[in-house]
């Protein structure tokens, strides 16, 4: 018997079983997706570690699954695929029957649907053939269904798509699992760590000029890439910013792994991590960031993509906020940078010994710290250096 276990890479984050993709007694091949697990960050599939028959399921749908926990057992060997009792002899005639039987027909290819996906499709009256699956081999996952519901599309076979709002004024919005986990993490974060926030202001003129010059050369960079690079360099003046509180010491991370908050609409947010940012140049950071944020919005992040962060950036200004003081969500971090909306403002600058009134692209930047780890002078030293790097960015 071969054990199937919850991956250890979740680093202690609790997961729940979202839905089984195979039934007891069903033949499986190595790397076949067996079960979907969901945390507050990502939904991931656990593949079969061997070829054989699924002999036993030990954690049912909605059960909590700690890292390393035993999910199921496979009786190893080579077996012919067995037809399931509820499997139709002929392809389903329409999406309703396909959803009921656990199959969808897309481009002539039959794909298994998990029980949770099947229930969600029926509940929201969604045609699975209209959903682009992001799972293994194009299979539809529960996140794919959730995104379809969030975009408020209800489709029947042979009828055009009709957009409708997901929620109406005065209508309650039930909690999903991600919202519950976010709430739990928020409460724990402010309970465990004493938060203090410092506020600075940064002139983005040099960054804007460099960004435009790079775009003219065919290199597209986001402002967030510059923020990651500047934050990485600022760690030199206050290394504890890249550390965490332990009972017997302040543990400073040997690598600078910067998480970037990425909004997922009404599904909350995830924080993909740019690993070893301190060793990367600006363009390499830009490429990694584009890949991570793109996969985040497509629901394709893995547990490794959202783990191991030592510092976080919340670029809340992209949604219009001028000023915010984000809280530190990860127990293994000591600080979080908040960056507000880039806005043209009137500033006073000294030019040739005279005060001059200028219009510059400005943004408020905040650093919220765990006061057990970092004191005010370190916080201000870090922000001073961070702003200095942004305002003196060399020309392209």
Automatic annotation (TrEMBL):
Cofactor(s) required for function per UniProt: (R)-lipoate
EC number(s) given by UniProt: 2.3.1.-
CDD domains: lipoyl_domain
Coiled-coil regions listed in the entry: none
Quaternary assembly: Forms a 24-polypeptide structural core with octahedral symmetry.
GO molecular function: acetyltransferase activity; lipoic acid binding
Residue ranges of every copy of the Peripheral subunit-binding (PSBD) domain listed in the record: 112-149
Record InterPro entries: 2-oxoA_DH_lipoyl-BS, 2-oxoacid_DH_actylTfrase, 2-oxoacid_DH_E2_comp, Biotin_lipoyl, CAT-like_dom_sf, E3-bd_dom_sf, PSBD, Single_hybrid_motif
UniProt keyword terms in alphabetical order: Acyltransferase, Lipoyl, Transferase
UniProt-listed Pfam families: 2-oxoacid_dh, Biotin_lipoyl, E3_binding
Record PROSITE patterns: BIOTINYL_LIPOYL, LIPOYL, PSBD
Family: Belongs to the 2-oxoacid dehydrogenase family.
Protein's name in the database: Dihydrolipoamide acetyltransferase component of pyruvate dehydrogenase complex
Enzyme class: transferase
GO cellular component: cytoplasm
Superkingdom, natural source: Bacteria
Domain Lipoyl-binding: 1-75
